[in-house]
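User: My advisor asked me to double-check a structure prediction for Glycosyl transferase, group 2 family protein before group meeting. I don't want to rely on an old file, so could you generate it fresh from this sequence?
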Amino acid sequence: MKLSVIIVSYKVPYFLEQTLLSVQKAAQRVETEVIVVDNNSKDNSVDMVREKFSWVKLIANTDNTGFATANNQGIELATGEYILFLNPDTVVREDTFEQTVHFMEQYPQYGGLGVKMIDGTGIFLPESKRGFPSPEVAFYKTFGLSKLFPKSKRFNRYHLGYLDKDKNHDIDVLSGAFMLIPRKVLDEIGYWDEAFFMYGEDIDLSYRIIKGGYKNYYYADTTIIHYKGESTKKGSLNYVKTFYEAMIIFTQKHFQGSKAGLFVLMLQFAIYFRAFLTLLSNFIKNSSLFVLDALVVYGGLIVIKDIWAHIRFQEASYYDTNPTLMYFNFPFYILMWIGAIYLRGGYDKHARTTHVLTGALLGTVCITSIYALFPQELRSSRMLILLGTLWTIIGAYLNRSLVSLLQHNTIFWSTSQQRNVVIIGDGHESRRVLNLLHEAHVDFNFIGKIGTSTSNLEDSLGAIKDLDALTHFYKVNELIFCGKNISFEQIIHWMTRLGPGMNYKIVPKNSTYIIGSNSKNSAGDLYAVDISFNIANSIQQRNKQLLDIVYSLLLFVLSPLLVLFMKNRMGFLKNIALVLARKKTWVGYVPSSKNLDLPKLLTAVLTPIDTLKIKPTEEQTLHRINLFYAKDYTSSADFSIIIQALRDLGRQEVPTYVTPC
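Assistant: Sure, here is a fresh prediction for Glycosyl transferase, group 2 family protein from the sequence you gave:
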């Protein structure tokens, strides 16, 4: 056997399917065996591999052994002269295996090879080529100098930013996403170090390759897609902690003496320093608009009170004798307005003018409702509340226009970008993909299809060779590639050529999933399966969380009466506490192995099935019930289920309805 491809998989079934399809095509040019090691994904990954890729050697672990251990399991099973460690969220070109194996055969001095990688938006991933994390290199990375001077040979040795990404180079560190190593080299230097659970193990193996007298190589003549690049995780505190702890393991293993001790201390400091920066960055990113709105509204209220005092009492300083107005009333009003705008979705990524307007009005209703409960000395003019409402709407709109202008060069923040979609594929397959979009109720503007063959362009906008001109002319912003009709080499070529200004999606052959990656920095958007779930809407999610709290407080107040009707009285009180602690939700999914395909929800007390007299027992039926609950979710649906299944609110575990085989 010439090549063994080892893929360690964990909870990425849609990516894995596409990876295996690309591997299957690339393997036609090189004698290849494929080994998938699943680290207890608990989804349909294992079943999918068995059903669709029976030729794959599958190891299904019963727990998550970690990346290094799983790779070693694959090595033990491998028989290839060369071993490729490949991530399950990658797409390789048809010629990738042929080119890279041929290169390694020509140059035996190289013990490891990596390739050029792009993310799902066509952007080059800098982790394709890296240098060893010496104390100096780690210092520059920790304190952001490598990012500040990305092309500097001194400051950016970690990502070797001074080396041309489109040229081949000797490098220090290979990426574990694509690492090709001769079997004889692994037998000489040892396998993956299982002390590393995640991150750092590829650095360690690369270091041992060089210590063994070989070189590592960055091969830019072929490109792969790596959807979940390293950059997707950097906003996570867990990433910071895990990454630098892996660096400490690497340092303690390969450095000695006082130099090693100093390096470890620096890395330990880096954990807290980078964690602080991550928290600060996330806080600024998530709260800046809240703060800006609060300051603008507060400043506006100060001006409004003086203007109204002048109009109403002919004395601009009339309210200055009442300090509670400035230090109690105004902050309270702002809290109500901003809180209501938040609940209505006014701070979401795709907020609309109606969200701000209805949020401000809702806040005003809350203020006036509570206003009557204030003691006389805390009651200010109702006109200040009404004028404040108007200013809140105007100020919030202007703030978002300013932010939109700075970020997107347009003041029209409330106008959603229309999805101008072009499907690239032939005849039947392009129609199948179009039907998938319609069945998923996706809001899009279908421009047309582009043929992949010049001999069959009937009803097409044109041929794929003119894709750049066609996308410009028709103002296309989303391309969907039919994997059955177009090679992965062409897909990667066009993603690289058109760049990140376009959204890219791929429909694998015979698949019902549309896979893409529109945001490399958002872990929640690493792949897009275009099904519209109402429960995934951020406003609905917040409403569900808020109503969980409201229901819990109401049930607690009524608990002396309600416990008389409960099947499990102590369980009822315990569930109230668990829902308030965000450990459970009052209504959620029926237990099913297919729930991982749906938007995530907390463990449920009740489910839609509790309203049915006859309980279905087939897995597919249960999944459909969950699917429709998520797709058509409304707050009233939860309320109805709670009322109908009131006696079961003390239940500690939802019954499993699936009939045993």
